[in-house]
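Question thread 4412

I'm putting together a teaching handout and wanted feedback from people who do this every day. The idea is simple: show students a protein as raw sequence, then show them the structure tokens that encode its fold, then repeat with a second protein so they can compare. Below is the first pair exactly as I plan to print it.
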Amino acid sequence: MEKAANRPQLSNRWFQLRGRRKRIFSPRSLIYFLLLLIPAFYTARSFRFPSVRENSFANQSGLVSYVYDGDTFRIKLRGGEKRVRLLGVDTAEVGDPHEEVDLWARLARRFSYFHLFQKSVSLSFEAEREDRYGRLLAMSGLIIKSCSTSF
């Protein structure tokens, strides 16, 4: 009888291991864990990863309708016309007060006009999509339509 009296009460312990009950989580720690888990779940659920559907400009192609200068042109896309600034190309602006700079700017514009105007180009974008003037920032590539002939 004395052994049963000296035995501690194990009524609030949860799991039993090797004949002894051992508590893995206390009710208080389980409540704290759930209170931390709920906001983390809603935060992760509300975070949206970028996808192609959300990015309407992902690797699009269109027809160049106007060339502003050597590094800027207007393109007809499915959603309308957009101004595009070429990444990696830096040309002088047409109308510069210095004659030599204006000459190089006009040559750059002529080069872009010859290679881009009324041609189908594909655009690929980097992380930053637009500049402070609202132009799309993109790299451009000509779409060359090849014709296959068999002899």
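The second pair follows. I'd like the answer to focus on this one:
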Amino acid sequence: MWQDHRLFKSAQSYLAGKSDRDISRIIGTRRMAGKERRGRLLRAANKWEEWEFELLGKYPDQEVARRTGRRVSAIYSKRRALRIYMHNSPVKRWQDWDRNLLGKCSDKELAERTGRSVEAVRGMRQFLGIERFVGKGSIRWTRKELKLLGKHPDAEVARRTGRTIAAVLKRRNVLGIPCVGLSWRKWTEKEDALLRGSLTNKEIAKKTGRKLKSVYRRRVFLGLSTPASSLDRTPPRPWKPKEVALLGTMPDRELGKRLGRSTKSVGEFRRKKEIRPFGYHASAPRTWTQEEIALLGTMSDSAVAKRLNRNRVTVKSVRQDRGISGWRRLRAWTKQEDKLISELPREEAAKRLKRSPATIDSRLKQLHAGNGAAGPRPWSTDEIKMLGTMPDRKLARQLGRTFYSVTAKRRELRIHSYAQDSRPWTPEEERLLGTMPDYEVAVRLKRGVTGVANRRWKLGIRAVPATGAVGSVNALRRNSAVRNSFQTTRSVSETNVLRCNRQTMTDNQLYYALALP
């Protein structure tokens, strides 16, 4: 009887972490959507046996994988889903005596005692809401110092107590003491009641002694609409014929002062009456003579505008209307210069010809495309031998060619690019490939995991599946349930590190950073 009860308990604990869909699939009650299928229902493939569950947690995951013939990642995910922990796990769990020491000594000292990191101790202390330890070296707040808070500004309290302003501000906020010397004051219930009445904002500002802007902001904060009495505006003052006659005879500002009106209202009414502003003199447009038109395109638009005493925009529009191209200060390329830039490097040719390197590059592109007098420069045997011996950009500068032409030539001849940090593979190193996982070979040979995998792939050697921690990390990336159960056993700081770096760090980096069991 007790065996059946034990079996029921183990089955109940196993099904507790499963969804309804998985339970129906395991028990065999799941049916396909749509038409009902006849015959025997499909069962879960490769189901876990009872003797396999008994091995979980008693032996390492690698040993259980060897005995059951399953993958290490499957063993790890199943053990975490059932919340079965390793007895010999290197991860240190928090005990009662560890938690009792939090806050009684510094985080650094407790980390040295328990063999943990300072971040793990700090994370657990903050998670439990325990304040940090205040030692003998730190200065405690006395009663006299606490009485100064709120009676004097923070800078004055900091000067008297010999503390920083930030420390004074933090202590005052913890105790809930308001700051002294603030220019604002809180709104009372009586003042809020005035806002709900029929008084205008100006009347409330006079009664409360506040600014009109602060009254308006408080009304918006409380979600109150402006009363209709404050929206009533006096009708605009009509314009008299004498006042209209003065429009345009003097500047709008001066006329506004004389009539007791604003400058904006004077300008708007003047434009409404289509009256020119004061000082405006209409003149007939100047016609363009043949001599002025002949100057267009011979020099820059700014120079033509200065010579003819015209606007530069007007000069440009007239030139474009007549289809005259803009002036460019260009030097024609001679045959000698074309030969020189094809023989010398770019920087030396730029110094000799007094041209910019960009101009020489554009001229070389024209010559290579067949737009110039000379054809594309052929590649010599010495230049071909230099391909792959240095970076393409550096070789392009040395040969006076473009970066794209050097890259295209190297790829055409199937020459590998220059690798500065490349190290040749020895026969002894190649023998290790395929005998162990790639990350172990990379650690032994001090190479990158990608380089080891590429070399093994070129030699046609099959990979050894990752075991241990790296396989556990792979399962941790794929399975969200395993990831959630894993986070319950970690400290707060380590869980945050895992959550932030799960997508950015590699498997090996996560393995060495978190030391998974």
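Top answer:
Good format. For the second protein you could add a caption like this: The first helix runs from residue 2 to 16. The chain is about 55% helix and 0% strand.
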